[in-house]
Amino acid sequence: MDRLMELAEADPRIILVTGDLGFGVLVDPTPDGSKPRFAERFPRQYLNAGVAEQNMTGLATGLALEGRIAFTYSIANFPTLRCLEQVRNDAAYHGANVKVVAIGGGFSYGALGISHHATEDLAIMRSLPDVTVVSPGDIWETQEATTAIVETPGTCYLRLDKSTAPPTHRDGEVFELGKARVVREGSDLTLIATGGILGEALEAADRLSDRGIQCRVLSLHTLRPFDHESVVTAARETGGLVTIEEHTIHGGLGSAVAEACLDAGVMPGAFSRIGLEAGFSSIVGSQQYLRSVYGMDAESIVERCQALLGAIT
Amino acid sequence: MSDQSPPKDTRELALRIRRHAVEMTSSGGSSHVGAALSMADLVAVLYGRILRVRPEEPKWPGRDRFILSKGHAGAGIYAALAETGFFPIEKLKTHYQNGSDLSGHVSHKGIPGVELSTGSLGHGLSVGAGMAYGAKLDGKSHRVFVVLSDGECDEGSNWEAILFAGHHGLDNLVAIVDYNKIQSLAPVKDTLALEPFGDKWRSFGWAAREVDGHDHEALTATLEDLPPEPGKPACVIAHTVKGKGISFMEDTVLWHYRTAKGSELDAARRELGEGS
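Structure tokens for the assembled complex are given below, as produced in the milestone run.
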């Protein structure tokens, strides 16, 4: 959000349209007005559309068609699934500069229940033509992705979750939409992660290293356009691919990686998709708790990788 | 007004829109001729008298924005755009044909003069409200016109936009409802009754007026008097007859979807003053 405020200060075309969410993030939470946020700092570039996501997205499209870079902002599935047709027909089909931001990817709001579990959004959003889909893994990626989507014409989806990996960028590294980042080298397996769950992948890679298994870790922050090259290279150069996403295993990162390999005629030495297999989660809990329940935490990744390697040796 | 297309006889324009709509839906085998006919007069008045547009410069920044939210009546708008010089009339023959960009529901791609692609109901007013809000922020003086159908007002998204535009006092926004009283399967009053319709808009902060949607003088007077109340968006409820202009199509549910072929097409042409 600090990055977006810097961008908004520099570029008056930026306008942020919220669906009545963002207390403390967009709006000053203090009674004495001591922490001005986006709403207070940029009143002409801020619009609360109310609890009306279809209208929020239509408004953003209208503003974008008239020359603005319009961010829509809400949590979980509200700025995507709730108004999917407005994103598709209005924003994407017109190539409108609408940047859809969802706070709360995956189980970020795990304790709130399935209405707030965003676990199909990546599959759905990446199927939309002409929509850039970004799911950054750490704070640096989030900041750089925010700048990148402002600079990228057309409709973009920025999926943020409450977790973040430890800093992974190197000095001087340049962020590029559509280009996966190798955040750790190794050749026994490649762990490919998208979003904050990258932190679990890195933790798992450390533990596997202690057991003599060296993993390459890819942060695949952009699902569309998809970085076929990095995935295929990893399939060729390492012993296998394990995808990790806080999202259903159907249609998201794991599916995209499988498609990329088969399209290229490359069969990874081993392959496994880690994500939500259970369907809806009727139980609730913290993001970390639900990751462990559904086999997406670092220890579960370690076990899956060991089993995978055991099965092929 | 120098920014306007040369004045047209709006009745002649309406007649041509009707002829095109019948021919286009017939040759394409498409539906919704009744919906195109009901709005022909109000579209003719808009394009003939009201809208500040430049057909030779479709993206002129100062133009009024027009959105057909009832995108299923696309044939009527394509006809109006062609007749007012946005693209060759000849192109209308490709409507609904294989490989054509003149889709049954309005699409902007490759079609000069179309601001917004529509077809799924309940989208146009939100986008129009965004355009109007942006114009206000920028101090621009152009207006945004959105034509909706009555059945379309079942869509909840419209009421989100109506609430928004009323709250923000977007008096550069004009919603015109083609109130032909018949929707897809049945009369509006038997489906989801809209009355008291004007009061609904008024209670959301709009200046709502009702007008005979086939009376060119009344339409012109109403649409020249904008905004009727400064600080409020304008709603014009245009009372129309579905299928207006062709006796056997008028006020019937049947002609929402039916396509005129053979003897029906001949009869329709005769009623519109054309030989078969």
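Chain B has one domain: 10-271. Confidence is low (pLDDT under 50) at residues 1-7 of chain B. Further analysis is deferred to the final report.
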